[in-house]
Structure formats: C-alpha cells, structure tokens
Specification:
101 residues, two-stranded antiparallel ribbon, 2 helices, 6 strands
C-alpha cells in the first residue's frame, strides 16, 4: 500500500553533505540487508548514503536527532522523507510505502 504523503510531517531537508566514497550503500532490497559498516560511518561522519530500490532511490543520513532519515525519490521527484531510530526500521518504512523490490 502506498504511503499517503499528505499525512506525513514536513520533510526533513537533505543536508548538503558529501556522499560516502565508493559503492557503499546503506541497505539493499536485493538481499534485504543493512550494511552495518556504512550505518556506523553515517553515525560518525556528516555524509550521505544511498538506498537503491527497484521503484525508488533514497538518500540517507543520520541527523542531529540521532535518527536515520531517508529522502525517497521516484523518477527524480521527492516523494517522502521518512525517519526511524535504526536503519532496519527505516528499511521497513520505505519498503512499506515504496515496495520491497
């Protein structure tokens, strides 16, 4: 079931931070796993990480509130910004709204 973006709080703006180096992604729907090393780096550094899905791409970061955030885009259009305490919870939220593929 798609997320009703009309009921979401105002989006958390994506910080103007550099991306992590290389091909490291925070999480992947291919194997349903969170990369713990990337999650630790996002907690420690002011950098952005990627979460690619079949039907979306999310830009991820850890905010000053210690929450993981994902700005979800489809076809280069921002659809929602979701937040959770852990990357696993964030993955579940994104998959619930935008698909598990």
């Amino acid at each position: 079931m798609p997320i009703n973006t009309d009921r979401l709080p105002a989006p958390v703006p994506v910080p103007d931070w550099p991306w992590l180096d290389g091909d490291d992604v925070l999480m992947s729907n291919f194997d349903r796993k969170v990369n713990a090393d990337v999650a630790d780096r996002l907690r420690a550094e002011n950098k952005l990480g990627a979460y690619p899905g079949w039907n979306f791409h999310a830009t991820c970061w850890v905010g000053e509130d210690s929450q993981f955030h994902a700005a979800v885009f489809t076809y280069h259009i921002h659809r929602a910004t979701l937040s959770a305490a852990t990357p696993e919870e964030l993955m579940a939220l994104v998959c619930a709204g935008f698909g598990e593929d």
